[in-house]
# Entry
Amino acid sequence: MEKSTANNQQGIVVKLVVIALLMFGFGYALVPLYDAFCRVTGFGGKTTVIDEAAASAVPLSDREVNVTFTSHSHTALPWEFRPVTPMVDIKLGQVQDAVFYVKNYSDRPITGMATFNVSPPRAGFHFKKTECFCFTKQVLQPGEEQEMLVRFMLDTEMPDDVYELTLSYTFFDNEKYAGQ
Amino acid sequence: MANVAAEHDHHDDHDHHMPTGFKRWCMSTNHKDIGTLYLIFSLTMLMLGGAMALVIRAELFQPGLQFVDPHFFNQMTTMHALIMVFGAVMPGFVGFANWMIPLMVGAPDMALPRMNNWSFWILPFAFSILLLSFFVPGGAPAAGWTLYAPLTIQGGMSVDMGIVAIHMMGISSIMGAINVIVTVLNMRAPGMTLMKMPMFVWTWLITAFLLIAVMPVFAGAVTMLLTDRHFGTAFFNPAGGGDPVLYQHIFWFFGHPEVYIMILPAFGIISHIIPTFARKPLFGYSSMVFATGAIAFLSFIVWAHHMFTVGMPLEGELFFMYATMLISVPTGVKVFNWVTTMWRGSMTFETPMLYAIGVVFLFTLGGLSGLMLAITPADFQYHDTYFVVAHFHYVLFSGAVMAMFGGAFFWLPKWTGHMYNETLGKIHFWLTAIFFNITFFPQHFLGLAGMPRRYADYPVQFTEFNMISSVGAFGLGLSQLLFIYIVIATVRGGKKATAEVWDNPEGLEWTVPSPAPFHTFETPPTVK
# Structure
């Protein structure tokens, strides 16, 4: 009797410790889960990526939507970063180019990485990019200036109450993550 | 005492070689001693965190900067919260659990006494590390107790010290929780089925499961912060592709169950005090158990109500709003049961009962302001204002802390063998309750008028309410010195307490003498 209680006790302890360890893992599992959740739902203004062929296959709609571009470079990054054309009106289904001007004002080469976001968030899922400077890291030499391209379209499923949306980019210094 | 010579041969006869000094307290495996250590630790932290609160209130007495600079002010708000949540409230309830759970279920000790010792003795080291961060360059963590990224990705080494301290507290809590679960599941006296367990044991069992489920998630979140800071990962740093909002999701996935970790044991204590002084059994015992379970379950699906303003789809806002409001149903069941227990009871109003009624009344007020905050469109106005500060002090101070005061007065005679001074106890209650309301009620108005939290300064139109609040805070803080005096006086002497202490109370803890002997229930009692 004594022994079986002791074993039982050990069993419960082991189970509880395993639960605790699994929950520690669950904390980490939330990272990919959240990312997948955002991709599937467009939550948090995540946009989607499609290839060129699929983009041009989408039929053109008559509905026009106003797209505003905004840009920031992080305080720690001595870059100028601005949209060349701050605003366009485009039809749903139309493939559009947007150009951003970037200049490195420092005296050293810097690797930057841009993050992006669409507002209102529910429009993000219908904002599809075929090409973007934000897909890869960008290196600018001292004093170098560049024009960077985003090619995108809005799909015809765009919610009816969205008349205007904003695409926002922020450039961060990526040096810390250069090895990755 | 029959055979003195024989006692030396029987090492398992513990009563006669109770260890003393260092051996007794630092190497203790006795649930009562460890419980006492937890309670002393909790009271110490309450005073320390309270002192920090007084620094905050002194600075906010007038607009402008009088005593401290804004950075130190931020350290005060952050450390006040960390110390109160992890140092005062959680260890306080673990202290009650250590003392009372074995006595209530008729067990001789906790199931894992050595681990119990370890769970406690980690804490002083954890808090030493946390407090030492005041002395490193840049001072203590100042990003708020939620430690939101990306602010905490910056910041000096104090953030790392805070993270290590949190890891240690987490380990301590998880071990404490495992101990409670094993004790409750394995060591109940014969005949005590789960549905015959005292409410305090039930609430702690559920709390322990919450702890095991969410403390590791928090540990994971701060570990991610640590690796983001030093090891080149980018979980939360947008520069490397991370998402700061993700931190808030993970934090509040822990943080919301955490608030129930801090209140469920308080509900348990109240459910013992009210029946004793109403002289009626607890109304609706099984509905109390299921309500506790329901609250625990719902606590996992409401976390995003802390972050409505980060921007989420309408569906998400509606879901979290309704789920949050749903929690008021099981909570309402509990309040209803407490009130119904009092209904037509032969009530007397000794200090524990005053505290219990105070908690029922004031916690319900805090619940009501919580419902207001749950309404998404309204929350956009209230978010991060003093309305939130008032709300969580109503549930945490007049809920959790006042329940602990009530529980302390309720069981102090059992712990010490002496009755406390009833007059002083009542004075302590009234001082605490009145000054508490003077401190925090005006903060509702400040919040509704738009005063944001976590600032060292404010516009002049908020002056009057802030002055009232600061006066109340100093009264509230000083009143607690009376509590310390009462406790010390009771430990040292006073009227002898009987085994039952109160008028026919229910529960196994009242069948052992007062003070409860070092070893109790070595032969398990039988529960009918």
